[in-house]
Design a protein that fits this description.
Helices cover about 40% and strands about 20% of the residues. By secondary structure, it is an alpha/beta fold. It has two domains: about 160 residues, Aminopeptidase (3-Layer(aba) Sandwich); about 80 residues, no CATH class.
Length: about 250
């Protein structure tokens, strides 16, 4: 799992201090963003070209002791929304007694600008990278920065354990061949959406429709010849139906 942790520079910037601690304790890519609109935008775009799985950007928010999980960035009237799932991060922070706010306002300064730049670059380049922006309090409003960094680190470690599963709720076709082709098509779609595993409905290869010929209610007293015909469609381990999926998974 490839993860980038980014935050703005500044000796008293809580985001920078947080990154220093993470850098010391955990082997992750760290990006210190300069406090400049153009430079920080160029920095994040260059790093995104490396196609990370996750990018976590930290900034500091004054006049609060809460942590804000940003969902949107807005620039010149155009709003972009992240597809990042914050649920596990929220749980880790709340377990450490932090108040966590789900926010749709990343501000109107450097934080918002770099978040917007990252989301825009992702969209324009069809990246699968999951991008988060987290606002933490200024250092004078954080009682224990080590405690906060440990909570963040515990979360980062869980990212390597994430397994994305696609549940393919598909309607079978009228033949094993067409089921195979349809399944391959949707496996590719699932991969494009970031899935590690694709799960098919039971009996995907020949389906129940082939037994009941479309009438799924007439399940009693099925003629033995129809059952035998259906059983004859069972595939072996070396069938091309299975081999296609084995090759697809490589």
């Amino acid at each position: 799992m490839k993860i980038l942790i980014a935050g703005f520079e500044g000796n008293n910037n809580s985001a920078k201090i947080l990154l220093d601690i993470i850098k010391e304790k955990h082997n992750e890519d760290i990006l210190y963003l300069e406090n400049d609109f153009e430079v920080s935008s160029n920095q994040i775009e260059e790093k995104l070209k490396e196609e990370y799985d996750y990018v976590l950007i930290f900034g500091q928010k004054p006049n609060t002791k809460d942590i804000y999980l940003e969902n949107n960035a807005n620039l010149n009237g155009t709003e972009l929304e992240t597809d990042y799932y914050y649920g596990v991060l929220r749980e880790k922070l709340e377990d450490n007694n932090y108040k966590v706010i789900s926010s749709c306002d990343a501000g109107n300064y450097l934080c918002n600008n770099v978040f917007y730049t990252a989301l825009d670059f992702k969209q324009n380049n069809n990246l699968k990278t999951k991008i988060a922006f987290i606002h933490i309090p200024t250092i004078d409003n954080i009682e224990d920065i080590e405690k906060l960094s440990n909570a963040i680190l515990n979360y980062i470690k869980t990212l390597s354990d994430v397994l994305n599963i696609a549940l393919l709720q598909l309607i079978p076709t009228d033949s094993i061949e067409n089921n195979m082709l349809k399944g391959i098509e949707y496996c590719k779609k699932a991969k494009e959406m970031g899935a590690d595993i694709a799960v098919f409905p039971e009996m995907w290869n020949n389906g129940y429709e082939m037994l009941f010929e479309g009438d799924l209610k007439a399940q009693d007293n099925i003629p033995i010849d129809k059952i035998n015909k259906w059983n004859s469609k069972a595939i072996k381990n070396d069938d091309k139906f299975i081999k296609y999926y084995i090759n697809l998974a490589k």
